[in-house]
Write a structure and sequence with these properties.
With 367 residues, the chain is α/β, with parallel strands linked by helices. Helix content is 49%, strand content 17%. The protein has 2 domains: 92 residues, Helicase, Ruva Protein, domain 3 (Orthogonal Bundle), CATH 1.10.8; 210 residues, Ribosomal Protein S5, domain 2 (2-Layer Sandwich). A hairpin with a 2-residue loop joins strand 4 and strand 5.
């Protein structure tokens, strides 16, 4: 009968000790160098990162054993009697380098501006989303430019990825959720009277998952309010129908993917990534990213609601409703509601001549 084994365990002292004992048995059996305290600690960090959760360890013990074997080699190359943290890091870096050809090629094309990703300045209707790619054992993040356009219409938000059959069901679900939020949050008292289009620019493969829905809502808000978005920032997260930002997968890889392009262009303290607050417990970032955050040259912003994300991206207050359901004048949300009310008035005006013609025709028939 098949058995379903757990792929993770709690990051407790007991489980760390059990893993250390198991690794020690492998080391003795294969006559490898033993780990010092720093080497063991680095292995446990890598186990948590592999699991994608700072509070859990991966139960993929064979992967840890392979790292110990490769770290044993690097310790020998350095003339060390014990495997230290630096030797474990070399083993990790070597695995990434061997599997990173496609990642490096994509990074190169971003720097050559074959793929257009801006990390400075501001633009209306354009935001940096984040995606994760998996090539073999290597997962890596990459920025994804998302744009939006709006015009008078019948309340439809067009997902171009879905229309051309490149968008999966989860991505389509995210777009439908943000459409519902748009109407209920801003113009629940009048018909939603816009036609908007959303697209992942320079995307030539399938798109799925709802982790870009927060970015799509923010870029749509920018286009409606005619307020520019800071291109020095990227955002990931899904949203619910109340605008709350929900957890997503691959948060570490997504942050690092944007960090890498910013670092190669030069960190200036303005660049950063907006993530769901629920993903903070999953952060197991590379040491260079942690160092940049500590130095204040790169930022990671956890948010709970899309209004917080809009404020960070635009540099202007999103604005919260008062007891009368009104947004503060001059706020981004006030501008969005004003634009949607303008669309509703124009749509109503367009409908009046047609209604008058129909009434005249009916009157002529009855006479």
């Amino acid at each position: 009968m098949p058995a379903d084994f757990e792929d993770r365990m709690e990051r407790s002292d007991e489980n760390v000790e059990n893993l250390a004992r198991w690794l020690a048995s492998i080391i003795r059996k294969e006559k490898l160098r033993h780990l010092d305290a720093g080497g063991l600690a680095r292995l446990m960090e890598e186990s948590a990162r592999h699991q994608g959760d700072s509070e859990r360890l991966s139960s993929d013990i064979e992967r840890l054993a392979d790292l110990v074997r490769e770290a044993h080699y690097w310790a020998g190359q350095g003339g060390n009697t014990l495997i230290g943290a630096a030797d474990v890091q070399k083993a990790i870096d070597s695995r990434i380098r061997r599997g990173g050809r496609i990642r490096d090629h994509m990074q190169e094309e971003l720097l050559r501006e074959t793929f257009l990703i801006e990390t400075s300045g501001s633009r209306v209707g354009q935001v940096n989303g984040l995606a994760v790619m998996q090539i073999g054992e290597l997962a890596f993040g990459r920025p994804q430019r998302i744009t939006a356009s709006v015009k008078l219409g019948s309340g439809e938000v067009i997902d171009i990825e879905r229309e051309v059959k490149l968008g999966g069901p989860l991505h389509s679900k995210g777009v439908l959720i943000l459409s519902g939020f748009l109407g209920s949050h801003y113009v629940s008292d009048v018909p939603l009277s816009l036609t908007a289009s959303l697209v992942f620019e320079q995307s030539y493969g399938g798109v799925d998952g709802d982790s870009a829905s927060a970015a799509e809502l923010c870029v749509l808000a920018s286009a409606l309010a005619n307020v520019p978005i800071r291109q020095s920032m990227a955002i990931t997260g899904s949203i619910d129908q109340h605008g709350r930002v929900q957890a997503i997968g691959g948060v570490n890889e997504k942050i690092e993917g944007f960090f890498d392009i910013c670092a190669q262009r030069g960190l200036n303290g303005e660049q950063g990534v907006i993530i769901p607050a629920a993903n903070v417990k999953h952060l197991m970032l590379r040491s260079d990213v942690v160092a940049a955050v500590e130095a204040g040259t790169f930022q990671v912003y956890p948010v709970e609601h899309v209004d917080d994300a809009i404020t960070l991206l635009t540099g202007s207050k999103a604005g919260k409703k008062n007891s009368k359901g009104e947004f503060p004048k001059g706020s981004v949300n006030h501008k969005i509601r004003a634009r949607l009310l303008e669309f509703a008035d124009k749509r109503r005006a367009f409908g009046k001549p047609q209604q008058q013609q129909e009434e005249s025709a009916d009157a002529g028939k009855s006479s």
